[in-house]
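Please check these two lines:
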Amino acid sequence: MTFRPQLLLLATFLLVSTTVSATANNEEELLFGKATAPPLVKAPTATPPPPVSPPKATPPPPVSPPKATPPPPPVNPPQTTPPPPVSPPKITPPPPVSPPKPTPPTVSPPLPPVRSKKDCLPICGGRCKLHSRKNLCVRACVTCCDRCKCVPPGTYGNRELCGKCYTDMTTRNNKPKCP
């Protein structure tokens, strides 16, 4: 690929040098009085070089075959004693499955007896601890606790455990009052 530009550069150099040389010769003849007509010099034309064949790729060196692995050691002749008998694996039956025992319902510990409004505050605080409007819940719970002397266990529901007094108490809009 780089051979062609170099060849062109060489041909151009030869052409220019011969032209300059011929011109210099003509000037010398005129200066020294030779009246002969200048000989016509035919400029050498750049002849294409003989086609250069690309270098032949040398074949890769032959790969030597891998070294032979040593032969395996001789095997001893089989022994004449028979192998020990193989006993079948023992299969144990799975243990009998008993039905799951029902879990007893969780019973909350009995609440302390309510005697006054002061006894209602801690019990109602526990009942209303998860309520979104805790202060409103505690205020209603303390009112119900003071009137009915009871607060249901847990944080929600179980209102029927405190009786009719707790379940039937309503607000002015006839909604259940006690949480």
